[in-house]
Every structure is written in structure tokens, then in C-alpha cells.
């Protein structure tokens, strides 16, 4: 089996490679290929991978390439996690709206729209290359994951699957507080990527567990989402939101927190510049350097939301539980027809009855050799269905803008977003992005 990682010089590639090492025999891996447009970054990450393989005592050779056709030709699976515009682009995504008092987080709000405008054309080119040279599955980690997955499904259909570890991470944390194994529980989760809610948790007997958890303030304080939203608001909702919904429920608070403490993009830019500049280390030293850098990266995840909520401390770091684990579970389910239930981004079919069948949603899916089959969710609370419908329209308008280079549609997507207060502000934001991102200005000339 050939597996290709597009974005092979990315900082999180060692997490994926480590997961591959653990499942090499079960998956029948023969070839791992790293593709990136930046050879220096690939060389740096290559040192880390060599250190990881030596530490684990497992041999899994990999090769690097800057030729996309070579990378994807004959690939059974293509993992993709790229950042078009790199972290410099993310800083601009966040900074431009923030200057106008609007949240600029990289996947939520105007920042996510700008990120998508420059990412979707690159990702659809990847999908077209795969359509010509591979009959494999595209496992997409690239953000904004829902939009990118839906755009690529126009070319590759259901062979594109979007991955996000946020819903499964919340489910694991809930299970831990309940003192249960998450594999023994059913999690009724629905929404779009970074816009979802957990409405039920049941055990094998069908006993409901979420209401009891929401009523227990002490239990809520023991996991991230409980501390972030607080018992009063969670009981008002009657469900547990994905952590990214904090940006919708507490937008102004988050803007003030970012202004007081700086954006995450700026922090990551400085941190990773330093990491990639320290090239030439032995594999062992490179691995240790990567781990230290990763710890600093993970502990500050969503720090602005915690600051806005008045929460102290660091993000709960879970080892071996990120998007790489979700991706491995998907590959395993397809290769070995396990029919495991996983929360994924895939075509709706009829999971959410208020959306059409091709709308990409994030819901539990039964995954086997033919890919994910979404579970029927049925009716959902009115405010959730309303927000999902609005955001799906924003997503699709953004996709069309990205593929056509339409300034009119780009501004429309910004103006329709619930976090953008007016059409005038949307125009100002788009003009700000175009001034600071030459490639975007060229694409929307």
C-alpha cells in the first residue's frame, strides 16, 4: 500500500508518521511518500522522523519529493495538511478583522474565509491530479476542513473524507469524566466542522448520561469544554458545544482577549521560524527539539478563548489522540472493513434533513471498505439548525468565490457571516486582505 503525505514538511507530520509506525503491519504499508514545495522544511522534518523510527525500533522507510504527480501516482491514500500562505498568511487572516473589532480566528469568521479563498484552488488542483493519476482516498486535514472537503468532493466524490480531532477529543474528555470507556458509549453529535454540538451520550443499555453531567458543576470543571462554557450556559443550551462555538457565543469577549494577549498565529509564526531554522541536528536531537516545541504549541491551543472565559491554566494535552489517530482509524476501517463509528466530514446524504444530500457535514459515520456512511441525526434544536444553514450558505459562497475569483461573492460570504456586523465592514475586511496578500489581490483582480 502506498500512502502519501501532502504537506510533508509540516510540523505535525511526525504525529502522522508515529501513528503509521504503530500500524505498519496491520495496514500493509509498503511505501510512504512526503510531498512538499519546500525542500528545507522536508529535510528538517525528515530528521525528526528518523529519530522517531530509531526510538521505536520500527523500520518504515519514506522518501521525499517536490513532484506532485510522482507523489500521488498510484497512491492508495493521500493525507493532506497544507497551509497556503504559511503562517505569515494566518497572521494576516487574524489581524485584518481584529483591527476592525471583528474576530479573525483562522477557521471561524473572516479569517477562515480568507484562508479558504487561497486554499481551495490549490486543493482542487490536488484533487484533479489525483483524479488523473490515482484511484485512492483523499484524507483531508487541511483547514477550513469542511469547506475544503466539499470543494474537493466536487471532483473526487465520496473518496474525499474530512478529518478533525475536535469532536472526538470532546467525546473522550466527556467519557473520562463519566469514568467510562468511550468505545462503550454512543455520542450523538451533529454539525459542520468547528460548528457542532453533542446532544446525547448513552451507554449500551440506552441510559442517557449527558443530562446528569450537565447538572454537575464539579464534573463540568474537570474537562475543557465544561470549564470554557460554564454550567449555567450549558444547561441553558441543554447540550455540549464544540469548543469553537465559544467564538460565536462569546465573540466580543474573545476579541478583547486577543487584543490583550496577541494572536495565536503570531505566536506560532515565531515559534516555528525558530524550530525550522535549527536544522542540521542529529535525528535524536531533532526529535527532542520537535517534542519541546510541540508541547509549547499544544499548551497554548485556544488560549484566547480560555482567557476570555477567565480560565487559568493550559490546554489539556492528550497523547496519541490528535487528528493523526482519527486518520489512522479511517484508513484501518477502510482497509480492514471494521465498520467503526467515527465522527467525520462527509456528504450529508440524509443525516441532517434540513440540508441537501451533497452538503458536507460533521456527524457520526459507519466506516467500512466503501468509506463513511453518515448516521441519521434527525431533528435538531432550532438555533443550531439555523446557524448551520447560515454557515453552509457562507461556506458555499466562499467556495464559489475561490473557484471563480469573484470579488462580489467573496464580499457576500464575508457579509453573510454572523460574526461580521455589516456589509461595509465586509468590504473593508476584503480590501484589507487584498492589500496585505499580493497573491489574493492577483487572484481577485
TrEMBL record:
Classification via InterPro entries: Glyco_hydro_4 (IPR001088), Glyco_hydro_4_C (IPR022616), Lactate_DH/Glyco_Ohase_4_C (IPR015955), NAD(P)-bd_dom_sf (IPR036291)
Pfam families per UniProt: Glyco_hydro_4, Glyco_hydro_4C
Cofactor note as given: Binds 1 NAD(+) per subunit.
Cofactor(s) for this UniProt protein: NAD(+)
Keyword annotations from UniProtKB, A to Z: Glycosidase, Hydrolase, Manganese, Metal-binding, NAD
Record carries keyword Manganese: yes
Domain Glycosyl hydrolase family 4 C-terminal: from-to ranges: 189-420
Family: Belongs to the glycosyl hydrolase 4 family.
PANTHER family noted in UniProt: 6-PHOSPHO-BETA-GLUCOSIDASE (PTHR32092:SF5), 6-PHOSPHO-BETA-GLUCOSIDASE-RELATED (PTHR32092)
Identification of the protein by name: 6-phospho-beta-glucosidase
The species this protein was found in: Solirubrobacter deserti
Amino acid at each position: 500500500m502506498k500512502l502519501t503525505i501532502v504537506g510533508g514538511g509540516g510540523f505535525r507530520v511526525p504525529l502522522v508518521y508515529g501513528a503509521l509506525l504503530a500500524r505498519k503491519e496491520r495496514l500493509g504499508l509498503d511505501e510512504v511518500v512526503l510531498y512538499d514545495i519546500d525542500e528545507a522544511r522536508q529535510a528538517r522534518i525528515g530528521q525528526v522522523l528518523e529519530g522517531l523510527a530509531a526510538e521505536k525500533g520500527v523500520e518504515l522507510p519514506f522518501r521525499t519529493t517536490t513532484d506532485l504527480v510522482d507523489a500521488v501516482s498510484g497512491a492508495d491514500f493521500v493525507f493532506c495538511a497544507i497551509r497556503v500562505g504559511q503562517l505569515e498568511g494566518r497572521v494576516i487572516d487574524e489581524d485584518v478583522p481584529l483591527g476592525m473589532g471583528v474576530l479573525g480566528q483562522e477557521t471561524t469568521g473572516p479569517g477562515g474565509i480568507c484562508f479558504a479563498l487561497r486554499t481551495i484552488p490549490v486543493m482542487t488542483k490536488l484533487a484533479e491530479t489525483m483524479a488523473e493519476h490515482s484511484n485512492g482516498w483523499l484524507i483531508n486535514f487541511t483547514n477550513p476542513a469542511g469547506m475544503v472537503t466539499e470543494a474537493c468532493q466536487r471532483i473526487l466524490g465520496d473518496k474525499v473524507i474530512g478529518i478533525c480531532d475536535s469532536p472526538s477529543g470532546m467525546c473522550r474528555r466527556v467519557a473520562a469524566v463519566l469514568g467510562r470507556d468511550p468505545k462503550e458509549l454512543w455520542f450523538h453529535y451533529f454539525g459542520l466542522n468547528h460548528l457542532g454540538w453533542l446532544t446525547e451520550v448513552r451507554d449500551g443499555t440506552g441510559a442517557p448520561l449527558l443530562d446528569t453531567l450537565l447538572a454537575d458543576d464539579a464534573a463540568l470543571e474537570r474537562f475543557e469544554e465544561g470549564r470554557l462554557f460554564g454550567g449555567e450556559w450549558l444547561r441553558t443550551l441543554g447540550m455540549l458545544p464544540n469548543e469553537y462555538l465559544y467564538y460565536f457565543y462569546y465573540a466580543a469577549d474573545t476579541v478583547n482577549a486577543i487584543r490583550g494577549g496577541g494572536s495565536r498565529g503570531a505566536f506560532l509564526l515565531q515559534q516555528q521560524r525558530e524550530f525550522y531554522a535549527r536544522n542540521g541536528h542529529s535525528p535524536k536531537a531533532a526529535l527532542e527539539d520537535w517534542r519541546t516545541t510541540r508541547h509549547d504549541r499544544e499548551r497554548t491551543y485556544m488560549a484566547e478563548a480560555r482567557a476570555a472565559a477567565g480560565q487559568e491554566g493550559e490546554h489539556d494535552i492528550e497523547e496519541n489522540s490528535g487528528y493523526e489517530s482519527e486518520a489512522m482509524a479511517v484508513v484501518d476501517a477502510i482497509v480492514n472493513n471494521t465498520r467503526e463509528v467515527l465522527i467525520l466530514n462527509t456528504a450529508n446524504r440524509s443525516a441532517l434533513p434540513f440540508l441537501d444530500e451533497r452538503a458536507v457535514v460533521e456527524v457520526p459515520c459507519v466506516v467500512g471498505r466503501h468509506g463513511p456512511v453518515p448516521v441519521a441525526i434527525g431533528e435538531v434544536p432550532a438555533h443550531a439548525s439555523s446557524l448551520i444553514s447560515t454557515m453552509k450558505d457562507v461556506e458555499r459562497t466562499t467556495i464559489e468565490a475561490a473557484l471563480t475569483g469573484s470579488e462580489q461573492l467573496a464580499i457576500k460570504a464575508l457579509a453573510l457571516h454572523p460574526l461580521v456586523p455589516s456589509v461595509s465592514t465586509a468590504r473593508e475586511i476584503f480590501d484589507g486582505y487584498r492589500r496585505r496578500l499580493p497573491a489574493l489581490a492577483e487572484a481577485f483582480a
